[in-house]
Amino acid sequence: MDNWTSKKILIVDDDESMRHLTETILSANNFSIIQAADGWQALEMLKTHKLDLIITDLMMPQLNGYELIEKIRADPETKNIPIILVTSKSDPDDISCGYHEHKVEYYITKPFSNQQLMAGIRLVLGD
Hints:
alpha/beta, Rossmann fold, 5-stranded parallel sheet, 5 helices, 5 strands
């Protein structure tokens, strides 16, 4: 876990309390965190920050999570950043869409536990 200290994660969620909760969990595990309140803000942050992981909500106004992922994947500079989708959409078709159509590395449904989030990050980033 010591190698995580240098890992920078972007949390994208329009719900401030969800961003805060996620940041609290990740900061306690020595990650460096930045936050975006929407997809457009996330895209701006991608221009100035080198990220190791993006954790994004799906249902956000203006630019939803899928649209954000499409823009990230379309840019040669950001296309290889792993993405974890965190959403309340728990239908098997939604989960399948996340993995197969949008190629996210991991899909977590809300509400989630600290252990679920950290297990997903371990899978994506390795320990």
